[in-house]
Amino acid sequence: MKSIHKIIFTTCLLIGLQLPSVQAQDIKGYVYELVSSTPLWNTTIKNIRTQEVVQSDRDGSFKIGGQLNDYLVFTNPGYKQDTIFYYENNIRRIYMTRDESLISIDEVIVSRMTDSRLAAEIAKAKNEGKAVDASQERGGLRVSPSRLFGKKAKESRRNLSLLVAEQEKRDVDRRFTTQLIAATVPLNPDEIALFRERFRPSAEFSKKASTDDFKVYILDSYKKFKSNQ
User: Fold this and answer.
1) Signal sequence: where (predicted)?
2) Which one, of 162, 95, 159, lies nearest residue 127 by Cα?
């Protein structure tokens, strides 16, 4: 009996020792300036859940304790504070925006933005691209010539579609994950990356579909993927 109790105790002890290592992980990444891609050192990174704070090194790299679904806040003097949602186990590249600069938006810039910065730029583009003011305090609808014909307003309206498209792509990717694909069809990591890019579903489908709907979609797309190889 003593030997059995000893075995049970030892097993429980080993499990207890292993649990923290299974749950704990390091979130790693790099911080850059958005337009120039220059590494930003001495950026403060804070995990909202654990309250742990670290700073980026001279090459922009950082490492902080955390887990999936954590929020990290990034601050650096002269740059806009930004927040990321950690939803996939990979090295994150964070691009921070200078406070005083106006961004000339293109596809590369947009793809670098964090989710919170992307949302802020969408709100900004919508506001700057408005040609009509519906304020009742100023006599109802008013058309603003500067907003209708101004260079900044026109550029904002052009940029808005690019920003929204990137946001929709990210929303889809949060559901059309590598983990879900790997659990549904037999593809290796390189094939999954290609499959995910080639068969990314529409934003409309992603909003309405259940997890089972996604699995059916993946199975159907897998047949097409294999037939084209």
Assistant:
1) 1-24
2) 159
